[in-house]
Amino acid sequence: SGVGAQQEREITLQEWLSKWETGNIGFHKERGHPLLQKYLDVLLNGRSGLRIFFPLCGKAVEMKWLADMGHTVVGVDVSEQALKDFFAEHSLPYCEKPVPEIAGAKKLQTTSGNIVLYCCNVYDLSSSIIGKFDGVWDRGALVAVNPRDRNRYVSLMITLMEKGSSYLLVTVSYDPNKYKGPPFYVPESEIKSLFG
């Protein structure tokens, strides 16, 4: 029943923006995520030069880490501040370009083009705009989208994946009766049904 308590919970994009504006970003990991280091081999599977997608990326330090290994990283976040902070904190020069297919969206990319971050709503993206990916690092994205949007979110992710790509998903486990989220609680049974 606890999971049901969260079904109607809805966080607006404005609420996420204000988290960044006020520095209320306890979800950001300064040193990178230990689980990505632990499961990196699963994501890469012996392959080099991959395209890796970071949904709801914030200013995740792993984007730089993977780009430095020779991969191309594409991220998306509604917070332009988060994306600009990412480039500033890693002293990476970047340029800004409009995204013609999406009104009001822009992409910030390194001069070499190995990191491209879209500032827009994730649901405005499609494979025709950003291409397909060999790997997805979903840390704090599925658990952050509003529960009623999960099917929509996962359907989008599946359309962005190449055959044989890896999807690393980090979820959180807790008693949903005691905490209203985000992050939201997504039980393993639901993960299995979402991703089939």
CATH architecture: 3-Layer(aba) Sandwich
State the order of secondary-structure elements, H for helix, E for strand: HHHEHEHEEEHEHEH
Query: Mean pLDDT score, rounded?
Result: 92
Q: How many separate helices?
A: 8
Shape descriptor reads globular
The main pleated sheet reads as: 7 strands, mixed
CATH superfamily caption: Vaccinia Virus protein VP39
Strand content: 15-25%
Structural class: alpha/beta
Cα-based radius of gyration, to the nearest Å: 16 Å
Keywords: Cytoplasm, Methyltransferase, S-adenosyl-L-methionine, Transferase
Pfam families: TPMT
Organism: Upupa epops
Protein name: thiopurine S-methyltransferase
Walk me through what this model shows.
It is found in: Cytoplasm. This is thiopurine S-methyltransferase. GO terms for molecular function: thiopurine S-methyltransferase activity. It is an enzyme of class 2 (transferase). The protein has 196 residues and is α/β, with parallel strands linked by helices. The chain has one domain: 3-Layer(aba) Sandwich (Rossmann fold), CATH 3.40.50. Helix content is 34%, strand content 21%. It has helices at 2-7, 13-22, 34-44, 62-68, 80-89, 127-130, 150-159, 188-195, and strands spanning 51-54, 72-77, 94-98, 106-110, 115-119, 133-139, 161-170.
